[in-house]
């Protein structure tokens, strides 16, 4: 593993423990065993490190959506939705403790919002991507033509986010079997609306 990967791994650990707001670049560099100067050779700022943590160290929601778009017809709709729900649960469970501290300061949130939105990497991206995936399923004729894809995507993401919020608030790590069961229940509920 190179210095960049070690910095991202250290950042994920520091951000999980301290939240984004309190995870300084100095603390991240120290945890990685590198100087802050080396950190800035790889990353422009803490926001770029945060985005790297989200895309490289957390469950791969984006990669899963890419795969579902390419192979949707190869797997039953219910299995695809369950896979999507499960990875979304994992992603939010991992990212919630890191990202929640963004809301501790209006200034911090505004700065972060401006940066990620300018790069089209904001929290709206999963919604857009899930709608695109559901559109592919509709194109394949596996979802009703009159189904509200944006509302369905919002229900899936919102339910997973709420689950992660509650687990984080309760300071508990759900067992994989519990996550699998919740993904299946969510899938069955969505299928009623989509089929």
Automatic annotation (TrEMBL):
Segment forming the signal sequence: none
A matching Pfam family: TetR_N
Matches recorded under PANTHER family: HTH-TYPE TRANSCRIPTIONAL REGULATOR PKSA (PTHR30055:SF226), HTH-TYPE TRANSCRIPTIONAL REGULATOR RUTR (PTHR30055)
Gene3D superfamilies (alphabetical): Tetracycline Repressor, domain 2 (1.10.357.10)
UniProt DNA-binding region: 24-43
Alphabetical UniProt keywords: DNA-binding
Organism whose genome encodes this protein: Amycolatopsis orientalis
InterPro entries cross-referenced by the UniProt entry: Homeodomain-like_sf (IPR009057), HTH-type_TetR-like_transc_reg (IPR050109), HTH_TetR (IPR001647)
Domain HTH tetR-type: 1-61
Protein name: TetR family transcriptional regulator
Molecular-function GO terms, alphabetical: DNA-binding transcription factor activity; transcription cis-regulatory region binding
